[in-house]
Input
Amino acid sequence: MAQRTIGLGIALVLLGIIVTVLSSSGSVTSLIPTFIGAIFVGIGLVASQMPERNRDMMHIAAAVALLAILGSLGSLIGRGSGGWALFSQLVTVVLCGGFLFLAIQSFKEARAARD
Output
């Protein structure tokens, strides 16, 4: 899961940069996926460098994914985003939602293997 976490982070970093460039946005908020992605990359690197902390790091990554989903959906519902902001928020929800699903499956498999 550490490699998937890093992959998600890189995808979010690229999403934020691409949307910011293509939209010619002068706002830092268009880089929010980049900041979230950097957190995922950091979590994934810690997990891969310290295997004894993998479980903790993956639970933290799942929590960050959930917060990213809730934050993006909250912004969509609260502001009614459009254009590039809508695209960025929807992609963030899909990527983090897919990651959260995989994380939960991984947690279930790990628990079953322990029992």
Remarks:
- Residues 2-114 form one domain.
- The chain has one domain: 2-114.
- The mean pLDDT is 92.
